[in-house]
Amino acid sequence: MPAPQCASCNKARAALRRPRSGQALCGACFCATFEAEVLHTVVAGRLLPPGAVVAVGASGGKDSTVLAHVLRELAPRLDISLHLVAVDEGIGGYRDAALAAVRRQAARWELPLTVVAYADLFGGWTMDAVARSTAGSGRSRSCCTFCGVLRRRALEEGARLVGATHVVTGHNADDMAETVLMNFLRGDAGRLARGGGLGSPGEGGALPRCRPLQLASQKEVVLYAHFRRLDYFSEECVYAPEAFRGHARDLLKMLEAARPSAVLDLVHSAERLALAPAARPPPPGACSRCGALASRALCQACALLDGLNRGRPRLAIGKGRRGLDEEGPPREPQLSRPPTSQPVPDF
Ligand code: SF4
Ligand code: ZN
Question: Where in this protein does the record put region Disordered (predicted)?
Answer without folding.
Answer: 316-347
